[in-house]
Amino acid sequence: MTASDPSLTALAQGWCALSLLHGRIEARIERALQTGHGLSVREYSLLDVLSRQHDGEGGHLQMKQVADAVVLSQSATTRLVTRLEDRGLLERYLCPTDRRGIYTNVTEVGLTLLKEARPTNDAALREALDEAAANPELAPLVQVVESLNVPA
After folding, report:
1. Antiparallel, parallel or unpaired: β 102-106 and 90-94
2. Residue 138 and residue 133: Cα distance in Å, rounded?
3. Helix/strand/coil (H/E/C) assignment for every residue in 31-76
């Protein structure tokens, strides 16, 4: 295979289209969340992921799991958690069974903000996908996204 191999070129074009779709969606959601709720996409994602924790077996996520879920490094996730904790949206506490572990939960204020922001996020996502569907290069990717049935 060479750099000019048609299969590599097609692969690169596909990756560029996927990257373009992601960038457009993220930018649309970012603007909507910042304007309406003072949240970034990453902050919203972190609140959303942490709001889905539960007290049952494996219900609380370790920081690495949270970092993977919001697609950030562990150090960037920790800084993000600290910022949201400073705003009163998150709280940390020691694991009752392992004093070395620290759990992070969404506060009532954070849950309220998340509930208010969710329709904004969903509407911005829908608008971005609808706009992208009109672009012949992005339309197949939009169809794939819309066909996914991924559990939350």
Report:
1. antiparallel
2. 6
3. HHHHHHHCCCHHHHHHHHHHHCCCCCCCCCCCHHHHHHHHCCCHHH
CA-CA-CA-CA dihedral for 116, 119, 125, 129, to nearest 10 = -170
- Which structure tokens are listed for 61? 């996520």
- Residues 87-132: pLDDT tens digits? 999 998 887 777 777 888 999 999 999 999 999 999 999 999 999 9
Given a contact cutoff of 8 angstroms between Cβ atoms, the answer to whether 46 and 84 are in contact is yes
Contacts for 42-46 with beta carbons within 8 Å, 24 or more apart? 42/70, 42/72, 42/80, 43/80, 43/83, 43/84, 43/89, 44/114, 44/117, 44/121, 45/69, 45/70, 46/70, 46/77, 46/80, 46/81, 46/84, 46/90
Tokens of 25: 């969606």
Q: What is the pLDDT of residues 42-96, one digit of tens each?
A: 999 999 999 998 777 767 888 888 899 999 999 999 999 999 999 999 998 887 7
134: its two tokens: 């009109």
* Cα–Cα–Cα angle for 56, 61, 63, rounded to 5 degrees: 160
Helix (H, G, I), strand (E, B) or coil at 95: coil
